[in-house]
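Following the same procedure, sequence and fold were stored together, as reproduced here.

>
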Amino acid sequence: MLNELFRSEISLDLDYRILSAVGSLLALSLLFIVLAIKRFFRGNILTASIQSLSGLSLCLAALLSLSIAMNFYSYGRLTFEQPIVQLTFKKMEEQQFQVDISFENKKSLIAT
């Protein structure tokens, strides 16, 4: 199973500005976490906890923005539209219609 994960190609066709912004947020969050660990070992527990929480929140913000950017960029691949059916309505009586459903492969259904 792990071999399949490593062999699968994951393509991030994202803009370099988005990747650089996410990378800088992750680097800044890593810096905050390292500084928080140093302050923790020096005995400044309160400032270490505040700094580690800010580092973790920056990391979460970076991952959230990466997730949103991937969602926006993957939406472009889903917008290829093509007609599936063609509906034709004919009025038979008051509040009654005949519907001609024509599929792309030239099959047709008539429903009343």
In short: Residues 10-78 form one domain.
